[in-house]
Amino acid sequence: MSQSLLEMTKELITEQIRKGRVPPGETQALLLSIHATLQRLYETEMSGAVTTSPNPNEPGSRVDWKRSIAKHAVTCLECGETFKQLSSRHLRRHNLDPRSYRTKYGIPSMQPLSAHVATARRRELARQIRPWEQAASKRKADKTRARKRGVNY
């Protein structure tokens, strides 16, 4: 490790202060929190333990993402809560977005983060509404209007 944990913590805090994200009274608490987190990560890295676990109380257990997506519910692999769909809003609570969540747990990019029933319902609605046809007809109408005005695409 080229930097000490204290140096890394100092750099992280300095950057947060520079960007104005740390209220003046919370600097010390944030410093201690970041240092403790980096220390835990370092110890985990050195021990070679697996960091992904469905339950934070069970460190080192393997996660099978396929089991987290069931017929009527999807379980968040970070906190263990169940939903019909894992929303971006929920994932932000864990400082993740759908792409990083999929990457972290090895979920394919085309796999919906929703229960099978919800995915099937959305798919059926799309087949009924046929939004691709509406978009194509709108593009065609826009091109026709643009030609009448003398604008070429």
What is the distance, rounded to the nearest whole angstrom, between the alpha carbons of the first and last residues? 55 Å
Main pleated sheet: 2 strands, antiparallel
- Could you list the spans in which at least 5 consecutive residues all have pLDDT below 50? 49-61
**Helical fraction:** 55-70%
**Proportion of residues in extended strands:** under 5%
Structure, described:
The protein is mainly α. 56% of the residues lie in helices and 3% in strands. It has 7 helices and 2 strands; from the N terminus they run αααββαααα. The protein has helices at residues 5-18, 27-47, 65-68, 88-92, 98-105, 116-129, 131-149, and strands spanning 74-75, 82-83. It has a two-stranded antiparallel sheet with strand order 1-2. Strand 1 and strand 2 form a beta hairpin. The model is unreliable at 49-61 (pLDDT under 50).
Brief overview:
With 153 residues, the chain is an all-alpha fold. Helices cover 56% and strands 3% of the residues.
What would the keywords be for this entry?
about 150 residues, mainly alpha
